[in-house]
């Protein structure tokens, strides 16, 4: 039985990847987890984890090399999906050193642990489309050779993540591939991200918990949206269909719109029709990567992957996720 090691399994993407692998493979799945990590996203897997039914947690921290070395040594994985990160660009402006240490040094720790344990795993390192940052109109859609122009400490850290992944592949003959996934969302998306905070605010308005006002940041930023469930299918195909050491790929959806148009879609789904929209200065980034439109031809030609889930379903499911949580009586920050 093959073994998969997922760093960040308690996050949105990691939890959906675990679901996908459980449903579509016979692999044993190990998720790296900090002892203090919230388990909300894998609540539905806890009984299986307790029974050691094809899924287990391994405790460690990306910034603690010894814990990562021991986790990798214990698991002896055939496949590694390195997804864990400080993943919120806005927070990175307030915590740049934490972001850099977690994302850059953390990636080096994972790859060094694989190297030192002599584990020949097929490894996916998740960078981000944010590495491209400030892109001019004439470079759209963004292909893999577009110049990096990161617009946040998070984006800078993901440049490091991307380059470290390729370095280990080229220097040590390891099968490491990096991806620059563009905007991807759906159920379990953290409420610090635009589409998810909008959906959460709408659900709270519908429940009468806050006034009928959605607070926003930059609504003019252009995004191409993919569903997280399409994203994890892409990651599985990345490591199982013609894995090429040191390869790097753009992955993303096909539906492009402004953040404001995305919000309009969510508002149209609401039962409350008098919701106002207000921009808050604290929700604006000092610099924004405002043209995020991918060219995914390279990845599609290598793997045959294409996104399948329509934008409207992604938004419907995201709003349903927040309605369920709000209606369950949970308390939330109004961020």
Describe this structure in words.
By secondary structure, this protein is of the alpha/beta class. It has two domains: about 5-185 and about 225-250, Rossmann fold, CATH 3.40.50.720; about 195-225 and about 255-290 and about 310-325, Alpha-Beta Complex (UDP-galactose 4-epimerase, domain 1). The protein contains eleven helices and 13 strands. The chain has helices spanning about 10-25, 45-50, 65-75, 90-95, 95-115, 155-170, 195-205, 230-240, 260-270, 295-305, 310-325; strands spanning about 5, 30-35, 55-60, 80, 120-125, 175-180, 185, 215, 220-225, 250, 255-260, 275-280, 290. The protein has a seven-stranded parallel β-sheet, sandwiched between helices. The chain starts with a strand and ends in an 8-residue tail after the last helix.
Describe the structure in brief.
The protein is of the alpha/beta class.
SSE layout and pairings?
Layout: E1 3-7, H1 12-24, E2 28-33, H2 46-50, E3 55-59, H3 65-75, E4 79-82, H4 89-94, H5 96-116, E5 122-126, H6 153-172, E6 176-181, E7 184-185, H7 194-206, E8 213-216, E9 222-227, H8 228-240, E10 248-251, E11 255-258, H9 259-268, E12 276-279, E13 291-292, H10 297-303, H11 311-327
Parallel strand pairs: 1-2, 1-4, 2-3, 4-5, 5-6, 6-10, 7-9, 8-12, 9-13
Antiparallel strand pairs: 9-11
Helix pairs in contact: 1-8, 3-5, 5-6, 7-9, 7-11
- The named CATH superfamily of the largest domain: NAD(P)-binding Rossmann-like Domain
Q: What Rg do the Cα atoms give? A: 19 Å
Counting structural domains, the number is: 2
Residue runs with pLDDT of under 50 for 5 or more positions = none
Alpha-beta content class? alpha/beta
CATH architecture type of the largest domain? 3-Layer(aba) Sandwich
User: What's the mean pLDDT score?
Assistant: 96
Please indicate the percent range of residues in DSSP E strands (runs of 2 or more).
15-25%
The CATH first-level class of the largest domain comes to Alpha Beta
Q: Cα distance, first to last residue?
A: 43 Å
Element-level helix/strand string: EHEHEHEHHEHEEHEEHEEHEEHH
Helicity range: 40-55%
Number of DSSP strand runs: 13
CATH topology of the largest domain: Rossmann fold
What is the count of helical runs?
11
Q: What topology, given as strand order, has the largest sheet?
A: 3-2-1-4-5-6-10
Biggest beta sheet summary? 7 strands, parallel
Q: Which outline best applies? A: globular
């Amino acid at each position: 039985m093959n073994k998969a090691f997922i760093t960040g399994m308690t996050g949105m993407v990691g939890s959906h990847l675990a679901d996908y692998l459980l449903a579509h493979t016979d692999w044993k799945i190990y998720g790296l987890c900090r002892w203090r990590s919230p388990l909300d996203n894998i609540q539905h897997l806890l009984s299986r984890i307790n029974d050691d039914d094809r899924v287990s947690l391994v405790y460690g921290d990306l910034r603690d090399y010894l814990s990562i070395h021991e986790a990798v040594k214990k698991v002896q994985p055939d496949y590694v999906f390195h997804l864990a990160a400080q993943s919120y660009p806005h927070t990175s402006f307030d915590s740049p050193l934490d972001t850099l240490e977690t994302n850059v040094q953390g990636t080096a720790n994972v790859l060094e642990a694989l190297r030192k344990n002599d584990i020949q795993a097929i490894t996916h390192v998740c960078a981000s489309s944010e590495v491209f940052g400030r892109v001019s109109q004439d470079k759209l859609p963004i292909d893999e050779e577009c110049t990096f122009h990161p617009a946040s400490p998070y984006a800078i850290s993901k440049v490091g993540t991307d380059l470290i992944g390729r370095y280990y592949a080229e220097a040590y003959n390891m099968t490491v591939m990096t991806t620059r996934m563009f905007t991807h969302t759906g159920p379990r998306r953290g409420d610090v991200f635009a589409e998810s905070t909008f959906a959460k605010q709408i659900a709270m308005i519908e429940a009468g918990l806050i006034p009928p006002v959605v607070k926003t940041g930059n609504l003019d930023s252009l995004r191409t949206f993919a569903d997280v469930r399409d994203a994890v299918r892409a990651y599985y195909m990345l490591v199982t269909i013609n894995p090429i050491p040191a390869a790097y790929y753009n992955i993303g959806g096909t539906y492009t719109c402004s953040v404001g148009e995305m919000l309009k879609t969510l508002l149209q789904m609401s039962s409350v029709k008098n919701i106002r929209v207000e921009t808050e200065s604290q929700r604006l980034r000092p610099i924004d990567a405002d043209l995020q439109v991918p060219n995914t031809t390279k990845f599609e030609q290598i793997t045959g992957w294409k996104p399948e889930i329509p934008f409207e379903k992604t938004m419907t499911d995201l709003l349903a996720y927040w309605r369920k949580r709000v209606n369950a009586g949970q308390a939330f920050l109004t961020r």
